[in-house]
Design brief:
The chain is mostly helical. The protein has 17 helices and 8 strands. It binds tryptophan.
């Protein structure tokens, strides 16, 4: 087992508005699942269903999508025993933290978020009110996402390039909070798989629900073949060399194939492979990887109650962290038990002062004068030898009070023998004694 210091925490979420597609698989799920299997990685995966409400007001679709995405991740090899796999809306501390972060974040920061800015720009270009149809939820999107990430003190967040700004905002919000209230949050970093972060869709633009150009990850085999057949190509005939540059088909192939397979297709393009044959190669390559996962997916989709149980167990695991952490954050900002007053803290200090060690002087039957240093519980820290007069003993005490370490060194032969640990404890006690009271 690696020590906690060497473990990297990865966290990622998927918004539950759609059906997972090949772009999600290549850009996020596959990468995340691979990471989750590393022994030096601790992973948090969640279904971002609060985020879904920003974009979608169809309850049935939210529910369906949540089920599909959960089944997808499990089918792709996510092990809920090993990772923390949960549903965002099962963690009430997340919206609470969103509020805390909102209160330390300038409105101007959120004004600059890409999604919000794009909406404003569209409205302005159309001559509408800049905020037309913009919900406060959309505006707050980055704060909710920051709460997702900071709640579990994630180090790394695997995301597409379009999400990098959100991770930077999460860092800034965490930093502002830390600055005001103490070091509570780890500052996260985006983790992008450079090779395949963006997959083109059927029309060559980024594969995305919003472009309607996706290939659903677990679409039935025949449908997969049909969709691949509809990928946009140019009009070059079989026998004419094809460009790999700008070819959606080639890029999708590359995302699934290893280097040797990719080289072989590059060669086939140069040699004028027909588009129909190239599409058949792509279909077979994707289906080879997806078919076993599709089988697991279908079994999971047939048992939603099992998925519900898995998610609830995941939420319990997540809340074992988020609940106590939120308690500390509440205390940090001043949402506190009213019985814990600063006055009570003053009393605590007085009690601490009263608990300081003290010197006791006394005369033994042998007629000599002695002293001892006792801690608050009466344990003897130092025991002096006998002095001829109370004045001599008093001088030794004064020297110990003024310059504990130096005095101890010169007096040690006059005191009872102490071992090193005992000497150290005595020095500490004396130094504590030398501090001005009220500290
Ligand atoms: N915004 C992400 C997306 O649309 C989903 C998401 C929500 C997320 N919270 C997150 C991703 C926290 C990573 C970390 O893809």
């Amino acid at each position: 087992m690696p020590s906690p210091a060497t473990v990297t925490r990865f966290l990622t979420g998927i918004t539950t508005t759609g059906t997972p597609h090949l772009g999600n698989y290549v850009g996020s799920v596959r990468h995340s699942v691979r990471f989750s299997q590393r022994p030096d990685v601790q992973s948090y995966y969640f279904l971002a269903d609060y985020h879904a409400l920003i974009k979608c007001d169809e309850p049935a679709r939210i529910q369906r999508s949540t089920l599909e995405i959960a089944a997808t991740w499990l089918a792709c090899g996510l092990d809920p025993e090993r990772v923390t796999f949960y549903r965002q809306s099962d963690i009430p501390e997340i919206p609470e933290l969103t509020w805390f972060l909102s209160c330390v974040t300038g409105k101007g920061v959120l004004n600059r978020a890409h999604a919000y800015k794009a909406a404003v720009d569209r409205n302005s270009a159309a001559g509408h009110d800049p905020d037309a149809d913009v919900s406060v939820g959309l505006f707050m999107y980055p704060a909710l996402m920051a709460a997702d990430i900071l709640m579990f003190n994630a180090h790394k967040v695997p995301v597409g390039r379009d999400q990098v700004q959100h991770i930077e905002m999460a860092r800034d919000m965490g930093n502002s909070f830390n600055h005001l209230y103490g070091e509570h949050f780890t500052l996260p970093e985006a983790e992008i798989d450079e090779a395949v972060a963006l997959l083109p869709g059927l029309d060559g633009r980024k594969m995305s629900k919003s472009y309607g150009n996706t290939i659903p990850l677990f679409t039935p085999r025949a449908q997969l073949q049909k969709l691949i057949g509809s990928i946009t190509t140019d009009s070059r005939a079989p026998g004419e060399p094809k460009d790999t540059e700008g070819s959606a088909l080639f890029q999708i192939y590359q995302a699934f194939a290893d280097a040797a397979e990719t080289d072989a297709l590059r060669k086939a393009f140069a040699e004028g492979i027909g588009w129909g044959d190239a599409k058949q190669l792509l279909f077979e390559r994707i289906d080879r990887e997806i078919a076993p996962l599709r089988e697991r997916y279908e079994a999971l989709m047939a048992d939603p109650a099992q998925i519900e149980r898995i998610l609830r167990a995941g939420a319990e695991k997540a809340r074992a962290l988020s609940q106590p952490f939120m308690g500390r954050l509440r205390h940090a900002v001043g949402l506190r038990n009213l019985a814990d007053q600063p006055a009570a803290q003053g009393a605590h200090k007085a009690a601490k002062a009263a608990a300081r060690p003290s010197f006791k002087q006394y005369r033994e039957k042998d007629g000599q004068f002695y002293f001892k240093l006792q801690d608050a519980r009466g344990a003897v820290l130092l025991q002096s030898r006998g002095f001829a007069s109370p004045k001599d003993a008093g001088r030794a005490i004064a020297a110990l009070q003024q310059q504990p370490a130096a005095a101890l060194e010169s007096l040690v032969s006059q005191l009872e023998a102490l071992d090193n640990a005992g000497l150290q404890a005595a020095i500490e006690a004396l130094e504590n004694l030398a501090q001005p009271s009220g500290e």
